[in-house]
Design goal:
The protein contains eleven helices and ten strands. It is of the alpha/beta class. The structure holds 5'-O-[(R)-(carboxyoxy)(hydroxy)phosphoryl]adenosine and zinc ion.
Length: 333
């Protein structure tokens, strides 16, 4: 029997609803983004985000059902992101999911947003285990071993800022628009690695650090401005991106060497970065490993990945009751 899951994602600044069949086939997907509004403030304003989710959620649910030519009665379960993210934003999705679950008597499945990013890969091609999972988003930078569905072991994580956060801050200090990742990537294409920036963590752990690199860029910009010197923004974007991505490559290389695992999946907003993809392709070729990265649409926040991550839980009947609460933090392991 085919299983249809209606999934809701409202953890940050995208209101998204999807219908996913058997955890791998997207039947309908709707995303409305609030980026234009938050861009005016240079970042996400939580109060504005939750209000906009409230305004959008029923329309996005209707739009997704229409695109899929389906009714809620056709669904087997309702899935929703409950953590991590902005509390007020998560609440809008969770309340909508609880309401649909109650009215239509459908099981409720709670999904961790980061696990959702990993399962976005199942929308491309079924993940085979064991694998290395690299999560690179606005709030997280983690390297995990995934032994089976929902079986994670953490190798390392960032000790301070996430890589996406560093992209966003660096973009802001050189006057690029929010979100910073795509703006830096675009500009870096025109630049050369002419600025010397510190390498983050030159040790043999799997931990990451991005605050030193971020501060080095901020200090460099301030010092040059004080001296009245011009900054070559494209060169700075390229220099920053090289160091930021190299940090990821070094840690994944260490994991290839030490674990012998020959599969890598990359997940989270920063996985939309082409340069990161190219560098990881080179690394994976060197170690004869396979690389899986979702298409652009499934790299950044969307509900299809939540529907994909909900499927193994559906099969195991891991359902939530109406006491389900949101959480701004949410560790995978
Ligand atoms: O996963 P995501 O959409 O939201 C969170 O769960 O955090 O990730 C957002 C982050 C932002 O920091 C954004 O700047 C970054 O992903 N990002 C990128 C690119 N596209 C989005 N970073 C680098 N290059 C990109 N092309
Ligand atoms: Zn995300």
């Amino acid at each position: 029997m085919d299983i249809y899951i209606l999934a809701i994602e409202t953890s940050c600044d995208e209101t998204s609803v999807a219908i996913v069949k058997n955890g791998c086939e997207v039947i309908g997907l709707s995303i409305t983004t609030q980026i234009d509004i938050h861009a005016k403030y240079g970042g996400v304003v939580p109060e504005v985000a939750s209000r906009m989710h409230t305004e959008a959620i029923t329309l996005v649910i209707e739009d997704c059902l229409e695109k899929a030519h389906m009714k809620i009665e056709d669904m087997n379960a309702i899935a929703v992101t409950y953590a991590p993210g902005l509390t007020g934003s998560l609440m809008v999705g969770v309340e909508a999911a609880k309401t649909l679950s109650l009215i239509y008597n459908l099981p409720l499945i709670a999904v961790n947003h980061l696990i959702g990013h990993i399962y976005a890969n199942n929308l491309e091609s079924k993940m085979e285990f064991p694998l290395l999972a690299l999560i690179v988003s606005g709030g997280h930078t983690e390297l995990l071993i995934m032994e089976d569905d929902y079986k994670f072991k953490r190798l390392g994580e960032t000790m301070d800022d996430a890589i996406g956060e560093a992209y966003d801050k660096v973009a802001r200090v050189i006057g690029l628009s929010y979100p910073g990742g795509p703006s830096i990537e675009r500009l870096a294409k025109e630049g050369k690695h002419n600025y010397q920036l510190p390498q983050p963590v030159m040790d043999n752990t799997y931990n990451f650090s991005y605050s030193g690199l971020k501060s080095a860029v901020i200090n460099l910009v301030h010092n040059e401005r004080q001296r009245g010197n011009m900054i070559n923004k494209a060169d700075l974007a390229k220099s920053f991106q090289d160091v930021a991505v190299d940090e990821l490559v070094r840690k994944v290389e260490l994991a290839f060497k030490n674990t012998g695992i020959k599969r890598l999946v990359i997940a989270g907003g920063v996985s939309a970065n082409k340069y990161l993809k190219e560098e990881m392709e080179v690394l994976c070729n060197k170690y004869d490993a396979t690389l899986l990265i979702p298409r652009m649409l499934y790299c950044t926040d969307n509900a299809a990945m939540i529907g994909a991550a909900a499927y193994p839980k559906y099969l195991k009947h891991e359902f939530s009751d109406y006491s389900l609460n949101v959480s701004s933090s949410g560790e995978i392991v």
